[in-house]
Amino acid sequence: MLGRGLKLSNVKVFFDGGCPLCIKEINHYQSVQNKYKIQNLYWQDISTGELDDLTKHKVTYEDAMTEMHVIEYKEESNHVYKGVESFLKVWERLPYYRMLAILTKSVPGVKPITSWMYRKWVLYRLRTDPRLQFCTAERCKPKM
């Protein structure tokens, strides 16, 4: 539950479990989730090659390895988020991070700067992670 009785929908986070920084961050989010017994947040390591939900939504392995993706499951339809938008969906569900999500979305300039920083991280990761050699071409470059 979120303040005023609003219930957030379920989300599944797709992350690269072979990326040391990524897994460190995901482990932190999971520890917060477990501490506060949050039920509407699910995790899937895509480095195992398991992409069933993503492929249903026309997200390729290359796209998924390029940026973090989240699927928000709602009664009427599902929606795929990627990059900073996916982090916002996670943060909305975690105590303390909710405020970060609100600030990122509402303070002018914060979301574009955060998106720019994330894209820079993605480009660095694509150049330096030997597992992502299939991303040396333009096809894995994050969408601006």
UniProtKB/TrEMBL annotation:
Pfam families: DCC1-like. InterPro entries: DCC1-like, DCC1_Trx. One of its GO terms (molecular function) is protein-disulfide reductase activity. It comes from the Eukaryota. This is DUF393 domain-containing protein. It comes from Acrasis kona. PANTHER family: OS04G0668800 PROTEIN, SI:CH73-390P7.2.
